[in-house]
Amino acid sequence: MISEYERQRRKDAIDFARGSVRLEGCILDEEIERFNAEFVAGNLSNEEHSCVCQRYILTKNSIQQT
């Protein structure tokens, strides 16, 4: 369980990152947003969140290239 302060800090970080990628013309898909929600809720650590997002993106990109 994480504190309300930590939950808000994580939410702010995700919102900032989401805004940054939108400025680059990207929209995060449902699976990444699911990972983000799990991170904000405290179910994933920062490291776990990074790993699952990277793994998902790499897998998705390799499937699209075939």
The largest sheet, given as strand count, sense and whether it forms a barrel, is:
none
| Oligomeric nature of the chains | single chain
| Coarse shape | flat
Low-confidence stretches: none
The rounded Rg comes to 13 Å
Mean pLDDT: 95
How many domain modules? 1
Task: Please characterize this protein's 3D structure.
The protein is mainly alpha-helical. Helix content is 79%, strand content 0%. It contains three helices and no strands. It is flat, with a radius of gyration of 13 Å. 6% of the residues are buried.
Labels describing this entry:
single chain, 66 residues, mainly alpha, 0% strand
Task: Outline the fold blueprint.
Elements: H1 4-23, H2 30-41, H3 46-65
In brief, what are we looking at here?
The chain has helices spanning 4-23, 30-41, 46-65.
